[in-house]
Structures are given as C-alpha cells and as structure tokens.
Design brief:
- The structure holds two protein chains of two kinds.
- The N and C termini of chain A lie far apart (about 50 Å).
- Helices cover about 25% and strands about 30% of the residues of chain A.
- In chain A, helix 3 (about 70-80) crosses helix 4 and helix 5 (about 210-220) packs parallel to helix 8 (about 300-309).
- The mean pLDDT of chain A is about 95.
- Chain A has helices at about 15-25, 40-50, 70-80, 95-105, 210-220, 230, 265-270, 300-309, and strands at about 1-5, 30-40, 55-60, 85-90, 110-115, 115-120, 120-125, 130-140, 145, 165, 175-185, 195-200, 225, 255, 275-280, 290-295.
- In chain A, the strands form three sheets. Chain A has a seven-stranded parallel beta sheet, sandwiched between helices. In chain A, strands 13-12-14-15-16 form a five-stranded parallel beta sheet.
- Chain A has two domains: about 5-165, HUPs (Rossmann fold, 3-Layer(aba) Sandwich), CATH 3.40.50; about 195-309, Rossmann fold, CATH 3.40.50.1220.
- By secondary structure, chain A is α/β, with parallel strands linked by helices.
- Chain A contains eight helices and 16 strands.
- Chain B has one domain: 3-Layer(aba) Sandwich (Rossmann fold), CATH 3.40.50.
- Chain B is built from eight helices and 13 strands.
- In chain B, the strands form two sheets. A nine-stranded mixed beta sheet of chain B has the order 9-8-7-10-6-1-4-5-11, sandwiched between helices. In chain B, strands 2-3 form a two-stranded antiparallel sheet.
- In chain B, a hairpin with a 2-residue loop joins strand 8 (about 160-165) and strand 9 (about 170-175).
- The mean pLDDT of chain B is about 95.
- Classes of the chains: A alpha/beta, B alpha/beta.
- At the A-B interface, helix 3, helix 4, strand 5, strand 7 and strand 8 of A face helix 3, helix 4, strand 7, strand 8 and strand 9 of B.
- Strand 8 of chain A pairs antiparallel with strand 12 (about 220-225) of chain B.
- Chain A: One of its GO terms (molecular function) is electron transfer activity.
- Chain A: It comes from Marinomonas ushuaiensis DSM 15871.
- Chain A: The electron transfer flavoprotein serves as a specific electron acceptor for other dehydrogenases. It transfers the electrons to the main respiratory chain via ETF-ubiquinone oxidoreductase (ETF dehydrogenase).
- Chain A: It holds the Pfam family ETF.
- Chain A: InterPro entries: DHS-like_NAD/FAD-binding_dom, ETF_a/b_N, ETF_a/FixB, ETF_alpha_N, ETF_asu_C, ETF_asu_C_CS, Rossmann-like_a/b/a_fold.
Chain lengths: ~300, ~260
C-alpha cells in the first residue's frame, strides 16, 4: 500500500518540513505520493516531483485551495484516500490543523508528532511534553500521522522524477473564509530548519535588548528564538517561541540566553546536539541540560561572545 | 448564543512526570491533577463572551471517570452555568472523545464550541478538529483572538478568529456553529473566588454514559511501551566567554 503525504507549501515553494515527512514515509513504504493542494502552485509541483523518493505528485490547483483551509483540503484528501495504507502530514500548524479532520472523516485514530518509525504499524511519539516516550501500535485500516520534522532527516530535493496527476475535484468551503495574514519578516534561516539557534528569555529585559543576539546570530548564521516568557512579555512575536506550545527544534547548537529552562521550554529544544546556557542564576534548571554553561551577566557575555567569534 | 466548552483533567503542568518501572504508562498515583491549561483558557474565553452579553449560557463538558467532577466544578466556579460528565474510563483516544463530544453537541445545539488546542498529557492536538469534522462545522484552531462584532454574529452568523500559525498570524471568518480551539495567548484565565466555589456546588451537573449518547467506543491503538526520554549527559560550567568559544570550536566542533 502506498503512502500519501499532504505537502506543505505557500503556493510558491515547498516547505522544508515536507522533506522530513518524505523520509519518514520511505521508511514505511517505497511508494510515496505527495498531494499539492493550492492555487497557482506550479513551482511547488516542480519541486515536489524532483524530491528523491517521491513516486507521484497529485495536484489540485484551484482558487478554493489557495489558503489550504482545513474544511476543503480534508474533504479532498478523503476523496483520494482509498488505496493508501498511510496518510501523513508534517507536524506544523498546517498539518496539525488539517490531518485530524481527515482522520475523523475516515473514522480512524491519528498519531501526532511521530519521531520514529519502528515498523509500518508501530511508531514512537513523545507525550507529557517530551518527558515520556510512547511506542504505539495501530491496527487502523488507514494509519494517519503527523511527522515531527526534527525526528527525521530531510529528503534530497533533487534527482526524483515523479509521475504527475491532476485532480479535478473542486471543494469550496462556504463556511470558512480567509481574511488576512500577518507574517513576521526575517532574513534569517527558518527556526525549525536552522543549524544554529540563539534564543532569549525573560532575562533579556526588553525587546530592544534582543538586538544583542542579532550580532551573534549574524556571525553564526543562526536563527533567533525565544522562550514563552519573552514572548508573553511582548519582547518578540510569538512565532519565535520554542517549546511545547511553540516550535520544536533540534539544531546542532542551541544557545539559551537568559532562559531559566522551564519544562515547557525544554520540551521544544532538548534534542539539540549541543546546548549552551548563559545565565546569571547558577541554579537555573537550564544548566542541567546544558553541555556548556556560563554563569554570567548576559549583557556582558553576549557582546563578548560576538566579538570573539 | 450558547457556548459549549470541553475540559480535561490532566496531571498538573508543574509536576515532574515519572514513568512506571514496568514501562506501561506514566505513574499518576498520588500526583497532583488540574484542569488542562488550554481548557482553562477555553472556559475563560466563554465566560468573557458571556460577560460581554454575547453568550447567554455556558455549558461545560468533560469525558472521563468520576474524578473529573472536580474539574467541572472548577469550571462552574469560574462562571460556567452547568456541567455534563460523560462517564467513561480515563485515557480514551481523541477520536472516541470527539465522537462523545459531538453527540453532546448535537443534543445541546450550541452556537459555538470552544476547546483547548491540546491536552498537556497526550499532546495530541486532535480533538477539536475531529469534533468539527464529525459535526461538519468549520474550525478555527490555535486561536489568539476571537472577535464577535456587535450585531455581526446575529446578522451574518460569522465570527472572526485570529490564529497562531508557523509564520505569524492568520485571520479567518467562520460561520456559526463552529469549533474554536485556544492557544495560550488568547487570554489570562481568572482564579475562582471562595464564594463562587461555594456557589458552584449548587450548579447542575448531569452524568451521561456512552450508551446514552449511542456511541460505541473502542480504539485500534495500543501502547506497546512508555519509557523515560534519553537522559542528557551532565555538562560542564565554563569560567569565561573565551573558554566557551574554545570549547565550541575545538571540543564540540559546532562553531568553525
């Protein structure tokens, strides 16, 4: 049985999280299909067809799918679901929004945030904010799951030559309407895909002080993140939040500045390869997970770090 | 408008979780339990809509064992009008819970269903979307703002919800009846006062069973094992920025 992945994109480019889902899918079955539902999304289709491991790309290109509303995309997936043993999406806000709707319509359960494929019916996922790891077996006819991108390597973006199929179904959703979007603009790498992340917490004091992190971020090619405390205090927008209720990251290097290390924050970053903590409170819980801890005033240590890189 | 809010009793978010030594589950004996934080936000939002005169009645519902009466009483003390317990064992999967909640919603016919975006124990983030699908209602998940403009909801039956998405924020207009799931930033929940806790004891609490609701619950998912996550090896403290940079370059080799 083939695996279907709902591709994530913004009508212009395929989102990197889809590539991690492709890797997860290839560990289940060699026949991996991607569904691209969007509007004027031909470049996304080109990118999707080139991904190594993808055998078929299905395209639903219509204005009704422009914002990939859960109401219409879920019904579209249900229409093409027969013949698939597994249906996957990335565990991003888009995947989390849509996939449970598909599962309920198909009357099957769903596994969220899968981090490992044990076999085609047994999967591993974190529970209790990552404080326990559950191995679960499902006997559902269609196995639905969202894939946590930090659990799988990204598939190679070239070399594939997938077959293409155009879907003609037009499913309008008359009870849900897109009004507007306010996206945070940034030249830095996307948080979930960055190799290096420097994050600030409540200890930063105010939003202006986050500029201190920019110098280090520029030198390391890092993304900037934040703890929930920093977001709630209004220092930075919430899409920078790393944690159970924000983004889950696993970069090579994670530098936590002025972050105490609450359970909810650790859930989002403790799989990072190397963790550095800079905090003036030597009893802060962050030091229990940090590979390298520096007890110092961040307002002195961060500029010094920038200068010595 | 009538609002239905679902609440879940979960391990308190401050508790350090212990996995049972036989690796079958997390140990919940003698552990502090509380209302799921996202559910508290859902209750608060419903009560604020009532205080604004938008909502006329707030009904809270919880699926689980008798112990969830405590959670329902908490919601009543915060300002909900009445409560429903759907009597089941604890720990049903999201689809079963969604089927039970959808049946309660069909009986109650609310204009708006508000739920937390996820429970902090199972971390599924599924139930709201599943309820919406089963009822064929539109959904607005991860809400950070719910706007019911005066007259708007009556005239067009539409509300505007701002959602937290990966790149920033997105605003949708959805037609009632609908399901909204809450993100943490939607509001700051209040505390229940002692007089309100006393008053809540007199508010109605109905008990229903899955059989009453005509829902057959069963799951195709089984837990093979629950294990503690891999422990990180203890790190070291460095004395200076220079030493830190040296370690990152020469020991960890993550900085070139």
């Amino acid at each position: 049985m083939s695996v279907l992945i709902i591709a994530e994109h913004d009508n212009k480019s395929l989102k990197p999280a889809t590539l991690n889902a492709v890797t997860a899918a290839t560990q289940i079955d060699a026949d991996v299909h991607l569904l691209v539902a969007g509007f004027e999304c031909q470049t996304v289709v080109e990118q999707a067809a080139a991904v190594a491991g993808v055998t078929k790309v299905m395209v639903a290109d219509n204005a009704v799918y422009e914002h990939q509303l859960a109401e219409n995309v879920s019904k579209l997936v249900v229409e093409i679901a027969s013949g698939y043993g597994h249906i996957l999406a990335s565990a991003t806000t888009t995947g989390k929004n849509t996939l449970p709707r598909v599962a309920a319509l198909l009357d099957v359960a769903q596994l969220s945030d899968v981090i490992k494929v044990e076999s085609p019916d047994t999967f591993v996922r974190p529970i209790y904010a990552g404080n326990a790891i559950a191995t679960v077996k499902t006997t559902d006819a269609v196995k639905m799951m969202t894939i946590r991108s930090t659990g799988f390597d990204a598939a190679v973006t070239e070399g594939g030559s997938a077959e293409r199929e155009v879907l003609s179904q037009v499913i309008a959703s008359d009870r849900s309407r897109f009004v507007k979007e306010q996206l945070a603009e940034s030249d830095r790498p996307e948080l979930t895909a960055a190799n290096v992340i420097i994050s600030g917490g409540r200890g930063m004091g105010n939003g202006d002080n986050f500029k201190l992190l920019e110098g280090v971020a520029d030198k390391l090619g890092a993304a900037i993140g934040a703890s929930r405390a920093a977001v709630d205090a209004g220092f930075v927008p919430n899409d920078l939040q790393v944690g159970q209720t924000g983004k889950t990251v696993a970069p090579d290097l994670y530098i936590a500045v002025g972050i105490s290390g609450a359970i909810q924050h650790l859930a989002g970053m403790k799989d990072s390869k190397v963790i550095v903590a800079i905090n003036k409170d030597e009893d802060a819980p962050i030091f229990q997970v940090a590979d390298y801890g520096l007890v110092a005033d961040l307002f002195e240590a961060v500029p010094e770090l920038e200068n010595s890189l | 408008m009538k609002i239905l809010v679902s609440v879940k009793r979960v391990i308190d978010y401050n508790v350090k979780v212990r996995v049972k030594t036989d690796h079958t589950a997390v140990d919940l004996t003698n552990v502090k339990m509380s209302m799921n934080p996202f559910c508290e936000i859902a209750v608060e939002e419903a009560i604020r809509l009532k205080e604004k005169g938008v909502a006329s009645e707030v009904v809270v519902v919880s699926v689980g064992s008798k112990t969830c009466h405590e959670t329902l009483r908490t919601a009543l003390a915060l300002g909900a009008d009445r409560a429903i317990q759907v009597d089941t064992e604890d720990g049903l999967d999201s689809l079963s819970v969604a089927k039970l909640l959808a049946k309660v919603a069909q009986e109650e016919a609310p204009d708006l269903i508000i739920m937390g975006k996820q429970a902090i124990d199972s971390d599924n983030n599924q139930t709201g979307q599943m309820v919406a699908a089963l009822l064929d209602y539109p959904q607005a998940t991860f809400a950070s703002e719910v706007v019911v403009e005066s007259g708007d909801a009556q005239a067009t039956n539409e509300i505007k919800v701002t959602r937290e998405i990966d790149g920033g924020l997105q605003t949708l207009a959805i037609t009632l009846p609908a399901v909204v799931t809450t993100d943490l930033r939607l509001n700051e929940p209040r505390f229940a006062s002692l007089p309100n806790i006393m008053k809540a004891k007199k508010k109605p609490l109905d008990v229903k069973t899955p059989a009453d609701l005509g829902v057959d619950i069963g799951s195709n998912i089984s837990i093979v094992s629950v294990t503690p996550p891999p422990q990180r090896a203890g790190g070291i403290k460095v004395g200076s920025v220079a030493e830190l940079v040296d370690k990152l370059k020469n020991e960890a080799k993550v900085v070139s």
